[in-house]
Amino acid sequence: MNSVPSATFSGAVAIVGAPNVGKSTLLNRIIGKKISIVSHKPQTTQGRILGILTRADRQIIFIDTPGIGKPLGKLASHLNRVAENARYEADFIVAVLDASKGLRDIDLGILEGVAQARLPVFAVINKMDLSTNERTIPLVSTLSGRFGIEEFFPVSAKTGDGLERLVDGLLKRLPENPHIYEPHEQTDQTPESVVAEFVREQIFLNAEQELPYSIMVKTEEVDIEGEIVRAAAVIYGLNARHRKILIGDGASFVKKIRLFSKKRLKEYFGKPVQLTLRVKVNEGLMDDLTAYSEE
Fold first, then answer.
1. DSSP letter, residue 2
2. 191-281 maps to which CATH number?
3. Cα 70 to Cα 82: distance, rounded to the nearest angstrom
4. Three-state SS sequence of 65-91
5. CATH of range 9-173; options 3.30.565.10, 3.40.250.10, 3.30.1490.20, 3.40.50.300
6. Exposure winner among 129, 216, 247, 275, fewest CB in 10 A?
């Protein structure tokens, strides 16, 4: 007698929010692996990054989007469009807010846009390690009264507090669908995009404020088949001044980026990494969207 196949459940969740509310940290913590770069600079996430969480018969596909903010040139407008479009590819929306800052105009604007998608919304009130329950009461009241949001999750992506309740809430709401990814897969990123993302992260973490978020990294080659990962990438600056900063005195800065990136990549790939970095100038960087796309 043939057994009836067990039902499986899956769905896509778009993570949206203003810059620096902790979207990438949230995703990394939920997945349990560093797949989205984290820095103090706005708009460091430059494309949608899928995080995949599979538990038994249930699979969540997370779409991490760039922080939605005021466009500064064609590049920033492109990032905003990526974030906007992700909402309409999802079954649910996780709207991330910063508990330590309350509801700002930029948050209200994002929530207005979220409401237009007419999808279930999970309001994640992040950075509770920097706030209190009392301070979040007015925020929750506004989210409920003005936007009709019913699901609230106070969390700290930094410490992990409250995240299991959020994950459980998402898992329970998944529609019946086949799984798209294998149980062991945690992201759809290619090795090329991983190298570029990790190098960019180290630039943002170690650079002074004069380097804008428009710095780009293009992976030229990566070989993960041998005992050592071999990769080469180019860092693009907007002008000669940026190139000078990126290189540093006696190539000190690019050497530092190479060293820290190798360490992170070794943790990700699980084996030693040989990494070559070069620095170039592209004066049309802000408007040149295709030259640095990994798609």
1. P
2. 3.30.300.20
3. 14
4. CCCCCCCCHHHHHHHHHHHHHHHCCCC
5. 3.40.50.300
6. 129
- Rounded Cα–Cα distance for residues 286 and 279 (Å): 17
pLDDT digit string (tens) for the chain, length 295 residues: 455 458 999 999 988 888 889 888 898 899 987 776 665 555 444 456 678 999 999 999 998 765 544 444 444 454 445 445 555 578 888 999 999 998 998 888 888 888 877 788 999 999 999 998 888 888 899 999 998 998 999 999 999 999 999 999 999 999 999 998 899 888 888 899 889 989 988 988 888 656 655 678 999 999 999 999 999 999 998 888 888 989 999 999 999 999 999 998 998 888 999 999 999 988 655 444 333 333 3
> What are the residue boundaries of the structural domains of the chain, listed by start?
9-173, 191-281
Mapping DSSP to helix (H, G, I), strand (E, B) and coil, where does residue 3 land? coil
Segment holding 235, helix H or strand E: strand 229-237
> What phi and psi, each to the nearest 5 degrees, are found at residue 51?
-110, 140
pLDDT at 170: 95
Residue type for position 245 = I
Binding site residue list: 17-24, 64-68, 126-129
Instruction: State the binding site for GTP.
Output: 17-24, 64-68, 126-129
Contact (Cβ atoms closer than 8 angstroms) between residue 106 and residue 69: yes
CA dihedral 94, 99, 103, 105 (to 10 degrees): -80
Spatial distance between the Cα atoms of 37 and 30, rounded to a whole number of angstroms: 14
Q: Strand pairing partners for 151?
A: 122
